[in-house]
Automatic annotation (TrEMBL):
Pfam families: DUF72. InterPro entries: DUF72 (IPR002763), UPF0759_sf (IPR036520). This is DUF72 domain-containing protein.
Amino acid sequence: MQNSLFPDQDDQPLASVRPAPQAPTLRALAGQLPANLRLGTSSWHYPGWAGLVWDKLYTEAQLSRDGLPAYAQHPLFRTVGVDRGFYRPLTTEQYAAYAAQVPDDFRFVIKAPSLVTDAQIRGPGGQGREDNPAFLSEDAAITQFAEPALAGLGHKLGALVFQISPLLMPALKQMPRQITQLHRLLRALPALHERAPDAVVAVEVRDPQWLTPDFVAALRDTGATYCLGLHAKMPPITEQLPVLRALWPGPLVCRWNLNPVHGAFGYEDARDQYSPFDKLVDEDLVTRQALANVIAGTVNAGQRAYVTLSNKAEGSSPLSVIKLAEAILAR
């Protein structure tokens, strides 16, 4: 059946993806950013980025398979989020295939599988079906995530992100128990720096009940950091900053996920409203400026920063990255 969006490509083999030409001003902007700052987007498979990242319109299948090398040629993109492993753990070979497609200085921000970070086993519609016995399991975190990522990506690993899904009320009433188990998991992880000198372990949460002194102590004790998760399920960035201050000095990992105008459950609404992700729709100037301040303070102190932006943050993550880079330099 012919796809009306791509009528000339249905029966053709997947072709190499080429990058869009970039203006000298954009390259100059990238050249002014500190080397220890890595900006990027949450994945790279969006056809609507034609003219922004790609030289023309490609199918999502083409971009998923062949788009990463072109993505990595964008002057501002020195990292990328890989979320697909959340749904099914990736293998060492899959990670190695990603590493082979990018320059030596590129780094990946990898999201842990739901096998480890979701307390529920979910059905096709996302509804919880039963308790997950591997939730925050040390063995699963190592064998299904940390070791394959380390072995496959090597020194191109930037951040291992454990994004813990929202908990049900019974679990929220037992936060000391959850934090103790998280502490055990983090303590069991293999050392990163011998194989990945720039790598960091980060924990992102979707329930503010995690943000306690015991949580901070668990991160500090294991050398992990807090992933600044900019999502409507969490308090604004200014209310999350005390956790980072308590862990200072240290690296910054941030994932700017969802504009608060859509509410805690507005991911699908944002996707539908912003698609095809080729323009900024809801610029979040308050978050952008606050994040620029945090980034500038971090990198100016010599610490690493990994920051990825979603299309659902403002409408188009490539354009959001440009605006954020300009705000950082203005800071």
